[in-house]
């Protein structure tokens, strides 16, 4: 039998307009991101926890890819599992339909909530307010990108009480077809805090760093590299020993935010200025 992923709360969710699916999770468990979150673009997202069955992740995605609904996937997985009453499971499918399962032997407080495009669940929680906060925050943050919404959900859930046994690890997984590095990966965000007294705060810090390096500023917000700004950029690059913006950006891992020499992403410009202040 799988090891228990105890004192865990999670939310599996999607943004259909953006073509993104993801899972965010926090647990009193080492490296929760290695067990709970699973997602595939255009397919769905799965969170497996409590006395977790890690097979629920790949098997659930396979069933979703075959066209089963979230509710059908939960039923199929749990019906075939003799230890289902110790399990907790959340699933969101390709159409945003959601289902959550909490076995009768999960430790109190344990339960879940579902709605359009999300399944929120938790066990060994202070109270139902933790899961309520996941659900309510997801609905209240609709204008934001999915990754930011999921992070906000974790923070709100912890503020509402969180895990009865405390905190240890957290994770954020978001997928989008060709949305990852170099448009050659489906993994948009995959961040994990394996062991930390404040794992949600650390996950938020990691996400800010990730977004600075790999986020996308709309092209119409880029600044033309001519006149005084072009001269400033050349001077700053020269002071660091670089002849081109692309060369410096490659060293700073900002290459995803550089495209030619005619315009500059404001995030890149700010980083350059900070580096030469």
Outline:
This protein is an alpha+beta fold.
- The CATH architecture term of the largest domain is 4-Layer Sandwich
How much beta, percentage-wise? Answer: 15-25%
CATH topology of the largest domain, by name, is: Glutamine Phosphoribosylpyrophosphate, subunit 1, domain 1
Low-confidence runs: none
Order of helices and strands: EEEEHHEEEEHHEEHEHHEH
Mean pLDDT: 95
The total of helices stands at: 8
Placed side by side, the strands forming the largest sheet appear as 7-8-1-2-9-10
Return the domain count.
Answer: 2
* CATH H-level superfamily title of the largest domain: Aminohydrolase, N-terminal nucleophile (Ntn) domain
Rg estimate, integer Å: 21 Å
Q: Biggest sheet: strands, sense, closure?
A: 6 strands, antiparallel
N-to-C terminal Cα separation, in Å? 56 Å
Q: What structural class is derived from the secondary structure elements?
A: alpha+beta
Helicity, as a percent range: 25-40%
Shape: elongated
Could you characterize the architecture of this molecule?
The chain is α+β, with helices and mostly antiparallel strands. The chain has 2 domains: 207 residues, Glutamine Phosphoribosylpyrophosphate, subunit 1, domain 1 (4-Layer Sandwich), CATH 3.60.20.10; 57 residues, no CATH class. Helix content is 33%, strand content 25%. The longest helix is centred in the last third of the chain and has 16 residues. It is elongated and about 70 Å long. It starts with 7 loop residues before the first strand and ends with a helix.
């Amino acid at each position: 039998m799988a090891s228990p992923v105890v004192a865990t709360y999670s939310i599996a969710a999607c943004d259909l307009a953006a073509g993104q699916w993801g899972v965010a999770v926090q647990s009193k468990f080492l490296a929760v991101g290695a067990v709970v979150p699973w997602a595939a673009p255009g397919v769905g997202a799965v969170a497996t926890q409590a006395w977790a069955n890690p097979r629920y992740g790949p098997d659930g995605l396979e069933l979703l890819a075959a066209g089963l609904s979230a509710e059908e996937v939960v039923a199929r997985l749990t019906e075939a599992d003799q230890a289902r009453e110790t399990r907790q499971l959340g699933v969101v499918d390709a159409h945003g339909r959601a289902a959550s399962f909490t076995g009768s032997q999960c430790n109190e407080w344990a339960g879940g909530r579902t709605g359009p495009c999300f399944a929120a669940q938790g066990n060994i929680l202070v109270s139902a307010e933790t899961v309520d906060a996941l659900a309510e925050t997801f609905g209240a943050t609709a204008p934001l990108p999915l990754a930011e919404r999921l992070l906000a959900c974790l923070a709100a859930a912890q503020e509402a009480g969180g895990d009865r046994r405390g905190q240890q690890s957290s994770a954020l997984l978001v997928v989008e077809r060709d949305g990852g590095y170099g448009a050659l990966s489906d993994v948009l965000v995959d961040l994990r805090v394996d062991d930390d007294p404040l794992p949600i705060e650390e996950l938020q810090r990691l996400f800010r760093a990730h977004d600075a390096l790999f986020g996308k500023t709309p092209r119409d917000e880029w600044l033309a590299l001519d006149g005084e700004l072009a001269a400033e950029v050349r001077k700053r690059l020269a002071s660091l020993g670089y002849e081109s913006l692309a060369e410096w950006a490659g060293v700073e891992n900002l290459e995803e935010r550089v495209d030619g020499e005619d315009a500059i992403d404001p995030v890149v410009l700010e980083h350059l200025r900070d580096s030469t202040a």
